[in-house]
Amino acid sequence: MEYTGYIENQEKYFKNGKTLPISKRKKLLKNLKKEILSNEDKIFKALNNDLKKCSYETYLSEIGILITEIDLFLKNLEKWAKPKKVKSSLLSFPSSDYIYSEPYGKILVISPWNYPFQLAILPVMSAVAAGNTVVLKPSEHAPHTSKLVKEIIESVFEKSHVLVIEGAAETAEKLLKYRWDYIFFTGSVRIGKIIAAAAAKHLTPTTLELGGKNPCIIDDTIDLRLASRRIVWGKFINAGQTCIAPDFLIVKRNIKDELIKHLSEEIKKAYGENPKNSQDYPRIINRTNLSRLSNLIKDTKIIFGGEHDLETCYFSPTIIDEPDIESDLMAEEIFGPILPIISYDDENQIEKFI
């Protein structure tokens, strides 16, 4: 098979104990942090090329998170790696009982395109900190960031320790044919099912960070202006391409009009009268996803935004009033800058929307 040699080298590297010394793990994390900081301008440029992210958003949601996590690992790794004494049970009496934290071995990481730097590097460095080898398959939909991730990883790690393999869906399919000790995937439910099926053949443990449909429930007891500011930030950062963004709002009917007014004001404060001209407003990752989003708002009541441009992958912050609960818009994760609003009169009605 195409990658057999690389994977066998990683297996030998792990079995020879080269990933285990805590001092080595910490040194590699320090080197990784140094490389990230020294390549900051390249990271800004790559994310701007792939998603038109501004530097502020890139640092906030990509670089800053990684630096914080590396510092956390460096501070706590030795403590985390120590055996933990636990209370003995009658079954093993008399005994002294401990929990030993051991690495899995060969880890496969398949990372997404929405936060293509952070969500590629973070699981890799976590696996390395835990004493594993890693093969990373970054998303082909963010090619500039994928290329830079590969450069940074290769400048820090031996390929027998961490290997980056770029490619499209067929590359992931080939990698899933190998037997791994752990698989970490972030992405859609559809692809998650494929990965779960491949892992099941060998009973390989997995972490599948998939999509959802997160509602934000708003009653008439809160500060609507403050809530609107927070909703706009959480929904439209990265143009809504965030798995934990509020997918839709469930709002008490008597405050809906006032909430819509504040939401509209906060969008304009954040991105101006025309978000297309804002340096702070990102783009949709590709035309395929933009077409998907444009189809979702067909035959809906658009009360704010709704503009989109296939050529530039621009989709404006958009608010939809009272969409059909049975529509595609409400049946699937939106993963874009579309905010449906559904009203309720009684709390007992909320459950049918969730």
Automatic annotation (TrEMBL):
Keyword presence, Cell inner membrane: no
GO molecular function: aldehyde dehydrogenase (NAD+) activity
Alphabetic keyword roster: Oxidoreductase
Keyword Oxidoreductase included in the entry's annotation: yes
Gene Ontology cellular component list: cytoplasm
Signal peptide segment: none
Aldehyde dehydrogenase domain mapped to chain residues: 7-350
InterPro entries linked: Ald_DH/histidinol_DH, Ald_DH_C, Ald_DH_CS_CYS, Ald_DH_CS_GLU, Ald_DH_N, Aldehyde_DH_dom, Aldehyde_DH_NAD(P)
Gene Ontology biological process terms from the UniProt entry: aldehyde metabolic process
Pfam families (UniProt xref): Aldedh
Gene3D superfamilies: Aldehyde Dehydrogenase, Chain A, domain 1 (3.40.605.10), Aldehyde Dehydrogenase, Chain A, domain 2 (3.40.309.10)
Protein name: Aldehyde dehydrogenase domain-containing protein
Family: Belongs to the aldehyde dehydrogenase family.
